[in-house]
Amino acid sequence: MKWLRRCRAIDLAFFRALEHERTAHQRMLADPYAKSFLPFHRRCLVWLSRLPLLRYSILYYLDIRWPGACSACIARTRLIDNMTLNAIRHGGVNQVMIIGGGYDCRPQRLQSGKRPFFIEVDHARLQHPKKKLLNRLKGHPGTVDYIPIDLHTQSPEEVVPPLVQQQHYKTLFICEAIPNVQAIRSTFQYIRQFPPGTRMIFTYVDRHTSGNPGMFFGVPNTDEDRIAGFLPEEVRTFLREFNMDLLYDVDAPTYRRHCFGTLSAPQKRQVAPRVALAQVKGS
Fold first, then answer.
1. Closest by alpha carbon to 70, among 277, 275, 265?
2. Which of 25, 88, 103, 179 could be cross-linked to 9 through a Cys-Cys bond (beta carbons 3.0 to 4.6 Å apart)?
3. Nearest CA to 76 among 152, 184, 165, 176?
4. How far is CA 154 from CA 23, 35, 119, 151, 183, in A?
5. Where are the chain's structural domains?
6. What is the C-alpha separation between 228 and 26, in angstroms, rounded?
7. pLDDT tens-place string over residues 119-135
8. What pTM was estimated for this model as a whole?
9. Residue 137: what are its φ and ψ, rounded to 5°?
10. What is the pLDDT of residues 122-179, one digit of tens each?
11. What is the dotted CATH code of the domain comprising 67-280?
């Protein structure tokens, strides 16, 4: 399972790197770090994608192999970026905890003006190469506290220092691709201990979308690589167990359309995560 997490992280970094190679006025997001995590042959593909005909061929192949995966990844990342920036600039957030960030260098990528305190909680096998790479790069903004965890066997409460729960922090959580329902429950149970108003952006797979609901598109097609799925109509009730309100919930076709507009054609067999926003209620 650990190497599958790494494969998923590399695939998503590949999609972000391809998007970054577009011209500044065309790209939907900037990620100058993504290609540094890729093996040599994928870095070559990213470089070749600067040529329009080759870029078309690469994206065409990706869409055949993983329908809609690349565009859904870009649109989802852009949406979560915008939600995070809005929370920092207008919501008073001064602490961001990312659970399951993979190879996305969101704390380094985002230009928020105000600089919140960033914490990343993820598997050590993913964090080690990320820290090693960023330490080699000159001029990347700010520092991040990295806390290793194995979400299959540990909860955030076991590894994150209690100091981060102090009242002067207004925290935003970003939880992507939490691997199973048990990990989701332990993570949500941890988040409910934070002060009222704490918000959480999270992704989940809609069990309506496929006979194989736990499958993430954009990763190798293997029955072992699953994330937890829910029915959208059950999410609000599930959150109530953890004293949270659901504020926002959007499916992949909608956030793809918001990102790409009329260029976003319907994708057959697309199973991409929904994006939701929840908030801890008062007692």
1. 265
2. 103
3. 176
4. 42, 30, 17, 5, 8
5. 67-280
6. 34
7. 999 999 999 999 998 88
8. 0.89
9. -80, 140
10. 999 999 999 998 888 766 666 899 999 999 899 999 999 999 998 899 999 999 978 7
11. 3.40.50.150
